[in-house]
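Morning, I've got a small favour to ask if you have a moment. The fold is given in discrete form, as structure tokens running alongside the sequence. I'd be grateful if you could look everything over and explain what you see. No rush at all, and the record is pasted right below.
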Amino acid sequence: MKNLLIPTTLEADTINAVKTAIRQSKDEQCTIMLMLVAEIPDTDSAAFFLRAVKSEMTVSQKKVLKEIRTIISEVENCTLKIHNQYGVSSPLIKNLIEFHKINLTILTPSYKACSKKIQMQCLQLLCNCKVPMLHLTENCIEQDLSKALYLEKNKSRFQTEDLQQMIQNEFDCKIVSQAKIQESQVAEDMTAMLAEAISKNKISLLIETRKPEKISFKKKNMNSINEVLGLPVLSVYEELV
């Protein structure tokens, strides 16, 4: 049984994320959870609170959700769950992931670009959880994510073999190449170095590791590598030792 989480504001690219989730289910029984987060209304009135949390979806959001329901209904092994989360904190997000036994979180470009504080905080909290995260790109519609390039950071404790063993049960891909990345390098400098390996090995996915970071309300340029190379990134949590 696989449980995949997609935080969303129901932009159009959520449809691509759902299609990616279906492919990653590998025909196993799978629950795809769409999580919508919102601020807790600042009021002492129970009636006002109930009215505030029942905010109406826009026409475009309803259209996206309707298409997603149609897609899921045509897949026998997948079910759809909608989770409305009011307010976020580290314990809340971690407990949600543990309770629903989430195996993979899928992030869309639109969600990463959100400027609202609640979505920014949720994204950073998700990054501090131990679940693998798949960062999609704008053109990631029907891409085959079976061949991966491991971007090994100079302070990482993971070897290629260790990482392959970690992800093989949750993500259907094989690491066919790797490159060592210095912390001081910027995304633009990596392009020429990695383009040849990507083309030669027909790479369709990048893999990197991440470590927990302090939560901040400032906008971060997260996973800029995939923006430059135009490839999805699978981010694997690396615990501090």
About this structure: The mean pLDDT is 83. DSSP finds nine helices and nine strands in the chain. The two ends are 30 Å apart (CA to CA). The first helix runs from residue 13 to 24.
